[in-house]
Amino acid sequence: MPTDPTMLDIERLDELRDLDPGNTIYLDRAIANFESNSVTLFAELEAVVATGVTDDVVRVAHRLAGAALNLGVADAGALLRDVEARAGSGDLDVASALLPQVSAALERGRVALAAYQAAYQA
């Protein structure tokens, strides 16, 4: 999978990096948390979609969208907002059909975040 840090909201990441000038501990921790939590939350999203409980789908999609958008992983965040909206309107079939796209966008986001991190750590 190609590394493309341009897919990220670099302005958002730079804002997080500048919270403590000269110290990237906060951003490094946030990226590490996203790397593991996005996998865990996506698995939880798949599980709640399978149960058909729309409130749970909305809750998990919202949480994962927030995590993605906070770190500038905009395409995954937008897809997850769509899952959230579809589930909220009771359209779990469409929400479920979006999951492969969400999974791929999250993976691209993790790869791009790693490339962004490597660039400022160099």
TrEMBL record:
Protein origin, superkingdom: Bacteria
Keywords: Phosphoprotein
InterPro entries: HPT_dom_sf (IPR036641), Sig_transdc_His_kin_Hpt_dom (IPR008207)
Residues the record lists as Phosphohistidine modifications: 62
Pfam family, one: Hpt
BP GO terms, sorted: phosphorelay signal transduction system
HPt domain ranges (all copies): 23-116
Protein name as it appears in the record: Hpt domain-containing protein
